[in-house]
Every structure is written in C-alpha cells, then in structure tokens.
C-alpha cells in the first residue's frame, strides 16, 4: 500500500483515560486493543490538571497551538514551548499548567523500549519520508504523493516505503518515527 492519508475531519473525539478532556486519535496500532504498541493523537488542553497515566509507555508531547505549557513530571517542572517535542515516562505522575491559556498538542505514546520520536520541520522543498513513519501537517499545506494535505491532516508511511512531501508555500510538519 505505501501511504495512508488520515484527514483531520475523520477523527473521532475520545475521552482521556482520567476523564479530564478529549483527544482525537490520528491512529492507534493495533486498533481496538488497550495494550496498543503506539498511538498518535491531538488533544485539546483547556484547563490545568493531571495527565492520564500510561505505565509501560513513553510519551512525546508537542504543543501545536497556544503559548505552551508547564509540565510537572514526578515533581520536576518543565516548560514546553510551541513545536518543541518533549519526551517523558508515560507512567510518571504528570500534571500541567497553562500560563498562556488553552493549547492543542500532538501526543505520541509508544511502548517503553520501542522506537518512536517526533521532530518538527519547516519544509521548503521536496522532502522524502521513509516508513514506518507518520506525517502531521502543523502549518500550511502540502501534497503527499500528489494528494493534498492541510493543517492538521496526517499520513502514515508503511514500513520500507518512501513518500515525497511537496510543500505548498510555508509549511511545517511533524515527522514521527514509528516502531
């Protein structure tokens, strides 16, 4: 198959494990199980509060919109600015404050010990992405294998497949390395 487009309009809102908010799942692998290998989603964070615990997983969170947040992970404070991926233990006691108001964030949750990383890239020309990977359009729009994607659409690139992203003007994407 090679490439799967995942339009933002198709995402379903899912309650956080702790009931404190909602996230919109981009993709979960494998689907339909609580013991997933990885999950990618975009959450609306509108108030200060605790994060859901994911023991046995690593989390990488990236603020997409808003001024940023302050995460307290096992008692240690971290300022997380816009478009700065921050990795932490999913089982850690974690809470956030929103000094600049509500945000949306991209969440990658992977089993501890598995590959998984997020980097944010300003794309100025053709960009080849090798799978297994995901692409999330953070700002602007692009064509992926000739098909249009806009903020915040996503695409999955299968293992051992390549795809080329062509930006349409100023475009920023999150590139996610997957297990």
TrEMBL record:
InterPro entries: RmlC-like_jellyroll, RmlC_Cupin_sf, Uncharacterised_HutD/Ves. Coiled coil: none annotated. PANTHER family: PROTEIN VES. This is HutD family protein.
């Amino acid at each position: 198959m090679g490439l799967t487009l995942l339009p933002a309009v198709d995402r379903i809102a899912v309650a956080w494990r702790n009931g404190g908010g909602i996230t919109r799942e981009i993709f979960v692998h494998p689907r339909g199980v609580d013991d997933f290998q990885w999950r990618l989603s975009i959450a609306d964070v509108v108030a200060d509060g605790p994060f859901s615990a994911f023991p046995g997983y690593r989390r990488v969170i990236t603020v997409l919109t808003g001024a940023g947040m302050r995460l307290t992970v096992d008692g240690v404070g971290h300022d997380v600015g816009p478009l700065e991926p921050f990795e932490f233990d999913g089982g850690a006691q974690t809470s956030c404050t929103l000094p600049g108001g509500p945000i949306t964030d991209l969440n990658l949750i992977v089993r501890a010990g598995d590959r998984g990383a997020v980097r944010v890239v300003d794309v100025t020309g053709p960009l080849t992405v090798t799978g297994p990977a995901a692409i999330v359009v953070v700002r602007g729009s692009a064509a992926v294998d000739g098909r249009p994607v806009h903020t915040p659409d996503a695409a999955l690139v299968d293992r051992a497949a390549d795809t080329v992203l062509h930006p349409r003007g100023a475009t920023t994407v999150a590139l996610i390395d997957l297990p």
